[in-house]
Amino acid sequence: MRSVFAPRPRERMLQPSAETGSVTAEFVAIVPAILLVLTFCLGAVQVVVQQARLTDAAADGARSIARGDAVGTADGNMIAAVGSASVSVDRSGDYVCVTARQGAAGPASLTGMSVTGKGCALGDDEAVSSGGGDE
Asked: How much is the pTM?
């Protein structure tokens, strides 16, 4: 009986195998799939970061309006922070809520998806009832 660890005969090792090049073919097939998955993952991270930035800017805008600043001033500050975004202000009782909506960035922009961030703040009774200063 031949040992498992015994070396192969030299002439058998030099013969070309039917599987020669199969690793290269598998590698060529899998690389685009890996790149596609990596692109989707990075795009998802980019959308999450964009949503966090929009939420932060909306919260800043809500606090600004709640303390009595003009809506135009809050909009300007938000646009400076996140770029072009549609902004809506909703007043409900003592609360001022600001919603910012923007088209998705990166690879997700191909889907037409929009990203939204919302922030609310408890306002001063006078500031909220007067509409947040001069508009």
From this structure: 0.70
